[in-house]
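Dear support,

We are seeing what looks like truncated structure output for some complexes. This example has two components. We would appreciate it if you could run it in full and send us the complete token output so we can diff it against ours.
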Amino acid sequence: MSNILEVCNLAKTYDNGLQAVKGISFDVRRGEVFGILGPNGAGKTTTLEMIEGLREISSGTVVLDGINTAEEPHVIKKRIGIQLQSSAFFQNLKLTELIEMFADLYGSDVNPIDLLAEVGLKEKANFLVKNLSGGQKQRFSIATTLVNKPVMIFLDEPTTGLDPQARRNLWELIIQIKKLGTTVILTTHYMEEAQYLCDRVAIMDDGKIVAMDSPEQLIKQLIARGFLPNTQVSPATLEDVFIDLTGKTLRD
Amino acid sequence: MRQNIRSFLALTKASLKMYYRNKGAIIFTLLIPIALLSVFGLLSKSRGGVVNVGLTNYSKSEVSKLCVKTLQEIKAFKITELSESQAAAELGKGNLDLQVIIPKEFGALMNGRPLTGSIETKFNEGKPLNGQIANMAIIQIVSDIDRKITNSPRILDVKSSGVTTNALGYFDFILPGILSMTIMQLGIFGVAFSFVALKVSGALRRIQATPVHPIYFVFAQATVRLLVTLSASLLLIAFGTYFFDFHMLGSYLTFILVCVLGILIFLGFGFAIAGWARDETQVAPVANLIQLPMVMLSGIFFPRDAFPAWLQKITDYFPLTFVSHALRKIANEGSTLLEIPVDLIGMTVWLVIIYALAIKVFRWE
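Here is the complete output from our reference environment:
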């Protein structure tokens, strides 16, 4: 598998002297789901924004699909789809109207209804964004990243604040996008999410990558280091109980 | 290029829909100026829209009779013949706007030649506007009659005929003022709050995530605001004309052109504030700091003549002073663009200053 993204010694120092990202390097392979994990303030969002061409790079290089981000940010933006952390915007527009608007901005022609059907929002086509539930807003937000048929999409904490049903529903959507051949890079706080979705993950802390591999390999390495869980390992989690009792049906 | 136009049109369409689906904003846009106009319209109607003149004629001459007759023919004047002391008392109580005293020797002939005589006028300091308008009218009537009697050619011509023939009232004075104030408020408050909200909510950031430069979003928002404010202006003019008999002596086209200039200036203020501010809490104090002095001191509700000279000098340079003054000259005196060069230069200078400033302080996040 070839690399779609190559990040080399990427660093960001803000005007106030804060070093948010301290020289990180990683590759993302074409067609995989790559996760960036880390506590708040680890530099995940800054890293994504530098790759996307939304934030100036202090040092280092980013090459995405053969294009240097810093040199041609506008070319990059045509080929990728970006979902931002906050999706509470354009409240008074209908879903179809917003899809049409974004399609116009990329100069692409999509059928809004078909695209909405892809993310399971066909019935909500004539709703205003403000009348959607949290999970629906996130799915719609992902739909807007797909209008230009991007080679890669960026999802910044796509499931934060969602209930377990909506979260699982979004996972299925991400798997579906991956199956269509789009590379996905996402950030998350939820380990079970990363384990379920990601082919490989990078764990960031304090602006640096402290580990990078597939979730299985990382777990194996931990056990090989002689790790002993501090609680009795249970074959099920509380979330399993919750889903078993309340079902997987979406509530929004 | 074609893609840029497509982006601009798409953003304009979306901005327009966002605007007209926001019912609260539409009410804010129209309700306040309509209410203000109605209050002032009803106030000037309840006074019959007339200037109350108390007249004392000591003279028995033909000329003085002609003078009184001419005054009585002016629709805007309500002439009451009173004794000098009665009239003075009524003027003091505020029931009269102007007291006119025609002295005994006025217009009398001596050896076939007219004596010189002067009419005395006193106007109500509390209502300087009505009094001054009436005073101007009387000065003109007298000088007209004077000219007829002495058969002297008119050497100096004061072009104030509009005052006597068109019964200009307080409403005609107030409408251009309220209109310019509305243009200012929609420009500064309307734009600053809505645009900073788009910035805070991440809408602007989301546009930045597309290949389109976010300046197109600013252009689209400005276009919508220009259309909305222009429509509101036209509606206010129509409302004032239909319900309160607003008089337009100049050209509507010129009037609207100045409105557009004013809209562009105050949109610039709005975008400068919204561009600079990080969130809504920073908008309110700055917008108020700019708007309040202008509402109070730009001569919107009453003429600036009442201010001390130094204050007049400062307020001369307010953008709202230029806009409202220009609109008044066009509506009340029938001025053309060539006759208001100072206002036009003032507005142009403000236009350049405010957009240069907006570009300098604008922050995308």
